Amino acid sequence: MAAICGINQCRFDKDYFASSVLDTPTILQASFYENTTPVYWNLKLNKIARAHTQVMAEDDCFTTSECSDGSSSTRYNNENYVYESLGENIDCMHPYTSSYSYVRNLVCEDVEYNSCIADSVLTDIEDRNNTMDSAFQEVGIGLAGDSKSTCKNYYTESYGERSDFSYPSHPVVSGAHFDDQNNFFFILTYFEHLSPTAIP
To answer: Which InterPro entries match (predicted)?
Structure first.
């Protein structure tokens, strides 16, 4: 839940996420991104994300398309998720801190070097683009670990857009407590109609 809250926090209020979460107000600029609607948890996408994350851990393979389970489209089709568009983000981390940390890493794209990649470097920010893509309506999250693998801990976000999806008419609230390197946090996201806001 912390991961989905983090994703939606970024989608709702990109300026807050860039300046306060990533301490990099120069990314997620208005010339490249707009605040957008939330993504909702989907069971099929969650199965896809969890299965691929497990394959990456077991195969010691860090890619969306060249592990033993094939391409993203193959995985979506095998789960009978009928999509208009799809996107997948993957990350790995050792030692593991929190699922929220994966969201930070993926939006920043270069957090291990203590600097985030600029919005203008379009070829290197696919993960950020997926996170902020207004076409995506749903997401699944996968976490898996294998002590014998290179990265030890793996993470997948599987995004989807469906033609038969409809947003709920009522406000949507989600929250999560999580431990990030022995620092405890609570994050709450609130969405009503098409005026999204985030409450840190």
So the answer is: CAP_dom, CAP_sf
| Identity at 170, one-letter amino acid code | H
Q: What is the pLDDT of residues 31-69, one digit of tens each?
A: 999 999 899 999 999 999 999 999 999 999 999 999 999
Asked if the model's pLDDT at residue 119 lies above 50, the reply is yes
Q: Which residues contact 99 (CB under 8 A, 6 or more apart)?
A: 2, 3, 6, 141, 143, 155, 178
Largest CA distance in the chain: 47
Matching residue, tokens 């300026």: 15
Taking the CA atoms of residue 34, residue 13, residue 140 and residue 120 in that order, the dihedral angle to the nearest 10 degrees is: 50
Q: What share of the chain is helix, strand, coil (3-state, %, to 5)?
A: 35, 25, 40
- Asked whether the beta carbons of 14 and 111 are under 8 A apart, the reply is no
**Residue whose structure tokens are 């998720």:** 81
Going by their DSSP bridges, the two strands 138-145 and 40-41 should be labelled as parallel
Q: What is the pTM of this model?
A: 0.89
